[in-house]
Structure formats: C-alpha cells, structure tokens
Automatic annotation (TrEMBL):
Top-level taxon of the source organism: Eukaryota
Source organism of this protein record: Rubroshorea leprosula
Protein name in the entry: Cationic amino acid transporter C-terminal domain-containing protein
CC annotations in GO: plasma membrane
Domain named Cationic amino acid transporter C-terminal: residues: 228-278
Membrane among keywords: yes
Keywords: Membrane, Transmembrane, Transmembrane helix
InterPro entries linked to this entry: AA/rel_permease1, CAT_C
Keyword Acetylation part of the UniProt annotation: no
Membrane-protein topology: Multi-pass membrane protein
Family: Belongs to the amino acid-polyamine-organocation (APC) superfamily. Cationic amino acid transporter (CAT) (TC 2.A.3.3) family.
Length: 312
C-alpha cells in the first residue's frame, strides 16, 4: 500500500497506530457493555450480543447486530484481498509469477489483475472448504508471518551487510536462536504437559528474558529509524515472537499438517519455477547495468539512452 499513499513514511505509521487504537478502544467498550447487559457466566461464546439482547428483551436489536457482523466479515475479507493482491503484485514483479499479474491500472493506480485473481481464488477456496479449517489455516499463516516479521525487524535493526562485524553478527544469531528456542520450549511444554508444572516455565522464561537483554546490551544497533520506527526494540519484537509462537501452540495438529502440505507445494513451485525466474531477473538486471542501462521490473530492460522526448 506504500505505493498508493502520498507520504508513506508518515501516513502508514499513523494509519496503523490510529486504527489499532480505535479498534482496541471499541473492543473494550463492547466488552464492557456486554458484561453490563449480562453476567459473564451466561455469555454465549458463539453469539454473545444476539443472546444478550434477547435476554434483556430487545429482540429487534439482534437483527442490527447480525447485519453489523455480516458487514464486518465482508470488510475483513476485502481487506485480506487488498493485502494479498499487493503481495501477488510484488511477487509477479520479480518474475516468480506470471508478469501480467504485476500490471497496474493506469486510471486507479491499483493492481487490477492481481486483485481479480486473488478474489476469485479466495472465493473458490472459501466455497469448498469448511470454516474451521480456513480459520485455523489463516491463523497459522498470520502468526507465522508475524513471527518472521518480528525476526526480520531484529535483523534489520541490528545487522547491516558490510558494516556489522562477524562477532556482532554471531551474537545476534545466538540471541535470536535462544529467543526462538525458549519460546518454542514454553509452548511445547504448555501444549503437551498434563500437569503444567511451573518449574519448566521458571527455566524457559528467564532464558527468553536473558537472551533479549543480551541482545540489547551486547549487540550494537546498526540502524536508527530516520522518521518513525518500532519502539522498545528488542523487547517488543522479542515479545511478539514469544506470543505468536505460544498462540500457535493452541492450534490443532491437523491444521499444521495442512499448513505443511500447502507450504510444501509452494516450496516445490519456488524451487522448480520461481527460483529460476528470479535468478534470470537478477542476471538480466546485472547484465543490463553492465551495458549502461537499467532494469524496470514491470517493463523489462530499458536502455539508459531511453528518453520520453517523442522527437528523439
């Protein structure tokens, strides 16, 4: 979405923080209203507001709630399609997907082909798949991506190729490894243990804490955000890693098998098709630069002598 905003360095952080703040406040107010309408022991987990309005005699309000829920699901689906279409567009620009998916509509400035393909694929999958399966797969994918983003944030903040020393790089790798291992160990013990003895947590939690503290103390930061950056680094990304991995532990085994199969199919495509396509793109980029030109990811190699003057 950064390409579609006038000032992404300012607008995107404001939009993210502002939207999360509004949503958090709205959820808290809704939860407070629900608890005031009905004792929390009587709240229906499947349809809390519908049952609550029926309990207080406001049957007409449940139809408004149903319409709001339908609109909410539609909004979420559209937001997912918008995000996935942009991912598909950037993948197509690297030639790992058909190039026509990277085409941008000149009037709207949006990836129209990628949006249509994403919307059609999402609709087909949703039509033939049970909701529980889709929900768990979406949860695994989202949490896995969030974990990778948190790791990437740590790497980007603490490592710059050619600047970071090998010693600092090794310290970074060790700290991240301990954060991942301690988080995974906590999750595994919570999911597999029947007694949930606190002794295991007394071991894994300090390991996570010390690894994060070591990352802050002994590894110098290689980058400092110029305008806006994630605060409380490395504590916030490290906590995100731990929470995401812990949440993954609550998902059933069958969903992980489906996720592994889907990931395997994607990896097979990448190694057989995408890897060669991206390599060819990089090779063409290097050859064209050596010839004095530049590479346009959407239009192919363009000579440095190219000019927009129609008379030339």
């Amino acid at each position: 979405m950064a390409e579609e905003t006038k000032n992404p360095a300012r607008d995107i952080p404001i939009g993210l923080v502002g939207s999360m703040t509004i949503i958090t406040v709205a959820y808290c107010l809704l939860a407070m209203a629900l608890c005031l309408m009905q004792p929390y022991q009587q709240i229906d987990p499947n349809a809390p507001f519908l049952v609550a309005f029926e309990a207080i005699g406001m049957n007409w309000a449940k139809y408004i709630v149903a319409i709001g829920g339908l609109e909410g699901m539609t909004t979420v689906l559209l937001a997912i399609v918008v995000g996935q279409a942009r991912y598909l567009t950037h993948i197509a620009r690297t030639r790992m997907m058909p190039h026509w998916l990277a085409q941008i509509n000149p009037k709207t400035g949006t990836p129209i082909n990628a949006t249509i393909v994403t919307l059609a694929a999402t609709a087909i999958i949703a039509f033939f798949t049970e909701l529980d399966i889709l929900t768990n797969l979406a949860a695994i994918s989202t949490l896995f991506i969030f974990t990778l983003v948190a790791i990437a944030l740590l790497v980007r903040r603490y490592h710059v190729s050619g600047v970071t020393t090998p010693a600092d790089r090794n310290k970074l790798i060790i700290c991240i490894a301990f954060i991942l291992v301690s988080s995974a160990a906590t999750t595994a013990y919570w999911a597999l243990s029947s007694d949930n003895d606190w002794i295991a947590y007394a071991i894994t939690a300090p390991i996570w804490f010390l690894a994060t503290l070591a990352l802050q103390v002994i590894v110098p930061k290689a980058r400092t955000p110029k305008l806006w950056g994630v605060p409380l680094v490395p504590w916030l990304p490290s906590a995100s890693i731990a929470i995401n991995i812990f949440t993954l532990g609550s998902i059933d085994r069958a969903s992980f098998i489906r996720f592994a199969v889907r990931t395997g199919i994607v990896l097979i495509y990448y190694f057989l098709v995408g890897l060669h396509a991206s390599y060819d793109t990089a090779k063409g980029h290097g050859e064209n630069q050596a010839a004095g030109g530049y590479w346009n990811a959407e239009e192919g190699p363009v000579s440095s002598n190219y000019t927009t003057n129609p008379s030339s």
